[in-house]
Amino acid sequence: MMDDTPEQVPHVLACDVGNSAIHFAWVHGETVTSMQSMRVGELAGLGAALANVWQQMPAPKTLAACSVNAAGLKALEAAAMDAARQSVRVVGRDLPLPIDTELPQPASAGADRLCAAVAAFDRLGTACVVIDLGTAITVDCVSDAGVFLGGAILPGLRMGVTGLHRETALLPEVELSEPDWVFGKSTSQAIVGGLVFGTRGAVKELVESYATELGHWPTVILTGGDAALIGGKLIDDGIAQAIVDDLVLRGVAMAYYRTLLK
Predict the structure, then answer these.
(1) Which residues are catalytic?
(2) Superfamily of domain 106-247
(3) Domain 11-95+250-260, what fold?
(4) 126-137 burial, b for 16+ CB within 10 Å, e for fewer?
C-alpha cells in the first residue's frame, strides 16, 4: 500500500459491477466503510446512494470500478456523472491491471478476479487462493512472488438452483441453507445438499490441486455473496482461513493507488 501520510492518501469510491449486483464503498488506504449493494435491474436509487457517499468524502478523491457487466457499468457511469459529475476510472480500461499474471491474455480475465487477488496478496504477502462465491464461483491462485497464476470458474449456487428448476420437469426451485442432514430425504433436501456439499467438494479439490503445484498449502480467502454459507465449514475444517466481503473493492482502490506510485 502507499507510504504517504493518511492526509495525502486519496479517498476512493470503489465499485464492483458484477453480474447480479453493484457493490460500492468508500476506501481510504486500509480503511473501508460498510459495503453497499444494489441489484442490477433495480438501480433507480444508485445515483442518490453514490452522491451520499461522495459528499462525505474529503478531497483528494476519485471514483474507480471494476466490471464484468457492460450494461451495469453503463448504468454506474451514468449515475456517477449525474450524482457527482465524475467519470469512472475502470480497471483494465483507464487503470492498468493491478497484478502481474502468467496468462497469455491478462485482459481476458475478469477484472474483479484480479482485483480480489491483488488485495489478498497485498495483505498476506504469500501464496494464496481467492474463492469468490457469487453469480459464478471463481477459485484463483496467486504465487509466492505475487503473480496471478489463473484458476477455475464454476456455476454459482443460485445458478445451480435456477438451472435445475428450469431444465427439468419436476425439480423445484429451492431456498439455499446450511444442510443439517447428510442424506436428503426429499427432493428439495437432495438439491440443497448436492449444491452446498458439491461446491465445498469442488473447492477442496481445486485448492488441493493448487497446493500440489505450489509445493505447500496456500492461505485461502473467501469473498462473495455465498461466502458465509459455504465458507464457515471450510474455515472450521482448516481449508480456508478468512471471509473478506469487501476484498474486490479493496483491490479496485489498490489498482488506482498503484498508478500514483509510478
Answers:
(1) 112
(2) ATPase, nucleotide binding domain (3.30.420.40)
(3) Nucleotidyltransferase; domain 5 (3.30.420)
(4) ebbbbbbbbbbb
Q: Where are the domains of the chain?
A: 11-95+250-260, 106-247
The grid coordinates of residue 262 equal 509510478
Amino acid, res. 109? A
Please indicate whether the domains covering 11-95+250-260 and 106-247 agree at the CATH topology level.
yes
- Structure-block grid coordinates of residue 188: 428439495
The 3-state DSSP class for residue 155 equals: strand
Scored b (16 or more CB within 10 A) or e, 166-204 reads: eeeeebeebebeebeeeeeeeeeebbbbebbeebbeebe
Tell me the three cell numbers of residue 108. Answer: 481476458
pTM score, whole prediction: 0.94
Question: What is the per-residue pLDDT across 3-60, written as a single tens digit (0 to 9) for each?
Answer: 455 567 899 999 999 999 999 999 999 999 999 999 998 999 999 999 999 999 999 9
Confidence of residue 2 (pLDDT cuts 50, 70, 90): very low
